[in-house]
Design brief:
Length: about 400
Amino acid sequence: MPLRLLTLLVTLLHVYTGLRLLPALATLTGGWPLLLAALLLSAATMPLPFIGARAGARRGGPAHGWKWLGLLSMGWFSSIFVLTLVRDAGLLLAWALAGVGGASIDSAAAQSWSAAAVALVSTLVTLIGFFNARRTASVVRVDVPIRGLPASLEGFTIAQLSDIHVGPTIRRGYLQRIVDAVNRLGADMVAITGDLVDGTVSELREHVAPLAGLRARHGTFVVTGNHEYYAGAHAWIAELRRLGLRVLLNEHVVLQTRNVKGAQTEEEMLDSALVVAGVTDYTAVHFDAAHASDPQRALQDAPPLVRTRLLLAHQPRSAPAAAEAGYQLQLSGHTHGGQFFPWNLFVPLQQPFTAGLHRLREMWVYTSRGTGYWGPPKRFGAPSEITLLRLVPERL
């Protein structure tokens, strides 16, 4: 959307919110000036992060602190605007029910106190959401039951990171805390399922550097998300490889996960192995035709005797093609679990899964709520996570 049109839309939404709340608050002592000031500040600063995104690495964009303020305003206004709509619908319903039932309500009082509640709840949710977003993600432990899992793979662990979005408000220190938390887990492998960055390599090279410190027995594997393509995917792929991470572009690796004592044949050795495949983002073809996402191609020349196959795919909607290709498990992200209300209600319109472990035919799909956040530093009802998945045999 053009910046001028976006600014006009933001302004009109703020005007609507002000007209619906400020007159009602005028009857309460001291309420309306604070809300008016907050709305004016929000309307003025919300476009600033988008100015920065268009300016890229060039000089002349808004200062970093102003971008922070704009993103905070975005999170706060998102809540107050939605709750204003909910308030209007509630008042209309109350008026209609009172008219049908012949009852009388104190309309002025209802409007005043409901307006105050909207302002207070929006601010409280934003403050709680800020704390949830800025804390280091908690570890979520998930057992994944795999049918026919070889005994040598039982207990294999995968630390999944997703949707960190290193960028305007997520910097080196935030990422370092995540890396330290992952290293304490002692996982067999680390999987990063896309949307690692929101910015160019030149802007963020210093801030993604802690990724070089990730430690796991079999290393760290990465797939691209849609935000990598917004930020210049080819440059980021080269940078991540320079840091020692393995980027999988519709390809796979075979991990020999255990030292098999006494194995005499290639079949015995391969039975203990794990295919780890990765696909480009579901929408990558719109940026580079050579990067069209293809779970089947990612298995090309994979040893048929390796029965356990894991796919890293940024978006859950890669799952039908992955199930058809014969994977046992897909790890995804992208959804953020909705991040905060009401966006969690819209995720199912685009993705088959919002968060957690789900079964699709013979394949499991785990969708992470994300380890960071996008845009406003705000999470409410969808906490961030570092996921530690453990492969276990399915009990029939």
